[in-house]
Design goal:
Blueprint: H1 2-16, H2 26-36, H3 44-65, H4 84-91, H5 94-97
Helix pairs in contact: 1-2
Length: 102
C-alpha cells in the first residue's frame, strides 16, 4: 500500500506541473497511465496484478520500438493492463461462440 500511495502522490505532483513521469519509473508511469484511462482497482492485489500485466506490455512495447528495422512505433492503450485471460473473456466469450450442450 505504501508503494501504491507513493506512486499516486508522485503522479499527482507530475500531473500538476504538466510533466510526464520519468521513463525509468515504471510505477509512476503506470499511475499516470491509470489516471489517464480512469482505471480503479479493487485492492492492492488487483492493482499489482494489473501493474504486472502493464509492465509486461511495456517491455514488449520497448522491445518493438527499439528495433531499428521497424518503420512504426507502438504504445499503450486502454487495454494495456489486461491479462490474456481478461482479453480472451472480452473478445472471445465462450458462451457466445459454443452451442449449448446441456
Amino acid at each position: 500500500m505504501k508503494s501504491f500511495t507513493a506512486h499516486a502522490t508522485l503522479f499527482a505532483i507530475v500531473s500538476a506541473v504538466g510533466l510526464d513521469a520519468p521513463k525509468d519509473d515504471k510505477g509512476a508511469r503506470f499511475a499516470q497511465w491509470a489516471a489517464k484511462h480512469n482505471k480503479n482497482y479493487k485492492n492492492k492485489a488487483d492493482n499489482d496484478a494489473h501493474f504486472a500485466a502493464w509492465s509486461k506490455k511495456d517491455a514488449d512495447i520497448n522491445n518493438i520500438n527499439s528495433n531499428p528495422k521497424n518503420t512504426f512505433t507502438v504504445g499503450h492503450n486502454k487495454f494495456s493492463d489486461k491479462t490474456q485471460d481478461e482479453i480472451t473473456q472480452m473478445f472471445l466469450p465462450h458462451n457466445k461462440l459454443l452451442p449449448k450442450l446441456a
